Amino acid sequence: MIEATLCFPLRNRSDDGTDEVLLIEKRRGLGEGWYNGPGGKRETGETFRECAARETREEVGLEVEPAALEKAGELTFLLDGEGHTNCHVYRTRSFTGEPTASDEARPEWVSVDEVPYDQMWDDDSRWLPGVLEGRTVRGEFRFAGGEPLDEAAFVDHDLEWDVSLESGRDGSP
Ligand SMILES: Nc1[nH]c(=O)nc2c1ncn2[C@H]1C[C@H](O)[C@@H](COP(=O)(O)OP(=O)(O)OP(=O)(O)O)O1
């Protein structure tokens, strides 16, 4: 099973109080051409928080402290009945730097009310709105149709909201 992360930096615009989330338009890899949060696969020896912070730095140049990330979700994506990816979802209002484009990602601040769910993974509209409202979620999402996952069809899902994520499946929150 692939172990991966997503990170959603949030800010409150000082001029009109709009809550915004930093999304990326993914330029390569899984989900290329779609919007998502910064994130990616965990490397050997990293905690999930360290992975989320590294991917956020590498993809958009924002510095986030692993300890300042708030765990918001644990998602399992299954493909044709088999576990494909475990995704650990974080959010944070604490970061430094200005988002900058990279080979992997074009960053864009988007109002939390205007997230482009029609240009994202089909599962995102099920879990991301609650995550952006500050809730916690555990979910299982089933896809069918063979590899790659981003060309498979989203079939169905189960979600549990307002769960305790203090201890992740591997013991690291
Ligand atoms: N169904 C899904 N919904 C979603 O919102 N994000 C998903 C998803 N399935 C995978 N992802 C995310 C998790 C993770 O952030 C990312 C994994 O994409 P990649 O394999 O391109 O990872 P990397 O950016 O680490 O790539 P490399 O740099 O090539 O290792 O896709």
Automatic annotation (TrEMBL):
GO terms for molecular function: 8-oxo-7,8-dihydroguanosine triphosphate pyrophosphatase activity; dATP diphosphatase activity; metal ion binding. Gene3D superfamilies: Nucleoside Triphosphate Pyrophosphohydrolase. The keyword Hydrolase applies. Its cofactor is Mg(2+). Keywords: Hydrolase, Magnesium, Metal-binding. GO terms for cellular component: cytoplasm. One of its GO terms (biological process) is DNA protection. Oxidized purine nucleoside triphosphate hydrolase which is a prominent sanitizer of the oxidized nucleotide pool. Catalyzes the hydrolysis of 2-oxo-dATP (2-hydroxy-dATP) into 2-oxo-dAMP. Also has a significant hydrolase activity toward 2-oxo-ATP, 8-oxo-dGTP and 8-oxo-dATP. Through the hydrolysis of oxidized purine nucleoside triphosphates, prevents their incorporation into DNA and the subsequent transversions A:T to C:G and G:C to T:A. Also catalyzes the hydrolysis of methylated purine nucleoside triphosphate preventing their integration into DNA. Monomer. This is Oxidized purine nucleoside triphosphate hydrolase. It comes from Haloterrigena alkaliphila.
